[in-house]
């Protein structure tokens, strides 16, 4: 990829992120792994293509990004998620194709939206696999309210760089690390908070954690657990979502069944 083409994509990313261009950006990153602009563009290209590589590339991009707050704002921005559809080229339809199309729409062979196929008037059910039902492998969708889900994904799956790849810390960072080491070595103790009567306040940590989990639980976080193969956490997530959203109770119940089916198959 030459400089002029890259600059054009950078100025108009919605016009040039084809599958071929995304592949070229991947080749560019093999030579320049710290080229953050190229990583951001490739990430967007993979997202728009619905590529199974997107989720792993997201954590890899985070590993090479100096400020993950900026990355989070980028992947939740309108410009990142906006996709300009490229019109398909108009070509003449061969007579053979027209004949096949006509045959496929006759009563002897019909396909409808309910995943049923009618062959010679006999209805055959098509059942999605657990992976398809749970959208495993599809790009994770985050919005601005799901920073916890984003950090959970990065925290548990971040691809860490080797010592050779990791740049030397700056003097400012070294000073911060030194201060942190001194703080830990001093073995500080936290003084319990007391009420007006002078008694120590008791905090039910278990209840606090339960409340926090319910507040931050989203369908995206449930999918994060699935992508990480944390099936027990995924089931718990869908159980919480089922209670929080009674109008979607049957949907989440089906998701739980699919996770259990997947869990059993992996055991």
Structure description:
It is a single chain. The chain has 15 helices and three strands. It is mostly helical and 267 residues long. It folds into three domains: 3-84; 95-126, no CATH class; 140-163 and 205-267. Helix 4 (36-49) packs antiparallel against helix 5 (54-63), helix 13 packs antiparallel against helix 14 and helix 14 packs antiparallel against helix 15. Residues 86-93, 100-115 and 156-166 have low confidence and may be disordered.
Give me the secondary-structure topology.
Layout: H1 3-11, H2 13-16, H3 19-31, H4 36-49, H5 54-63, H6 68-75, H7 78-81, H8 95-104, E1 109-111, E2 116-119, E3 122-125, H9 130-133, H10 147-157, H11 171-185, H12 205-216, H13 219-227, H14 231-244, H15 249-266
Antiparallel strand pairs: 1-2, 2-3
Helix pairs in contact: 3-4, 4-5, 10-13, 13-14, 14-15
Protein name: Tetratricopeptide repeat protein
Organism: Croceivirga thetidis
pLDDT below 50 for ≥5 consecutive residues: which ranges?
86-93, 100-115, 156-166
What is the overall pLDDT average? 74
Task: Report the sheet-strand fraction.
Answer: under 5%
Main beta sheet, described?
A: 3 strands, antiparallel
Roughly how many Å is the radius of gyration? Answer: 25 Å
Number of strands: 3
| Biggest sheet: strand arrangement | 1-2-3
Number of helices: 15
As for the number of domains, it is 3
The sequence of SSEs as H and E is HHHHHHHHEEEHHHHHHH
Structural class determined from secondary elements: mainly alpha
Helix content: 55-70%
Question: Looking at the structure, what is the overall shape?
Answer: flat
Distance between the termini: 45 Å
């Amino acid at each position: 990829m030459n400089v002029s083409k890259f600059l054009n994509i950078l100025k108009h990313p919605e016009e040039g992120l084809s599958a071929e261009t995304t592949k070229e950006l991947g080749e560019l990153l093999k030579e320049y792994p710290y080229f953050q602009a190229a990583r951001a563009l490739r990430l967007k290209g993979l997202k728009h293509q619905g590529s199974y590589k997107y989720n792993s590339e997201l954590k890899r991009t985070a590993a090479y990004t100096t400020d993950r707050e900026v990355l989070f704002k980028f992947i939740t921005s309108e410009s990142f998620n906006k996709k300009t559809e490229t019109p398909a080229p108009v070509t003449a339809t061969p007579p053979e194709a027209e004949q096949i199309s006509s045959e496929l729409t006759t009563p002897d062979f019909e396909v409808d939206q309910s995943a049923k196929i009618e062959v010679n008037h006999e209805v055959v059910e098509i059942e999605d696999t657990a992976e398809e039902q749970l959208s495993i492998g599809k790009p994770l969708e985050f919005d601005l309210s799901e920073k916890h889900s984003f950090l959970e994904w990065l925290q548990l799956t971040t691809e860490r760089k080797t010592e050779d790849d990791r740049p030397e810390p700056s003097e400012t960072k070294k000073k911060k690390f030194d201060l942190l080491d001194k703080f830990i070595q001093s073995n500080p103790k936290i003084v319990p908070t007391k009420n007006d009567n002078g008694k120590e306040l008791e905090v039910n940590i278990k209840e606090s954690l339960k409340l926090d989990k319910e507040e931050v639980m989203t369908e995206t976080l449930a999918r994060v657990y699935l992508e990480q193969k944390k099936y027990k956490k995924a089931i718990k997530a869908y159980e919480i979502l089922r209670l929080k959203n009674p109008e979607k109770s049957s949907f989440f119940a089906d998701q739980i069944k699919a996770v259990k089916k997947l869990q059993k198959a992996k055991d």
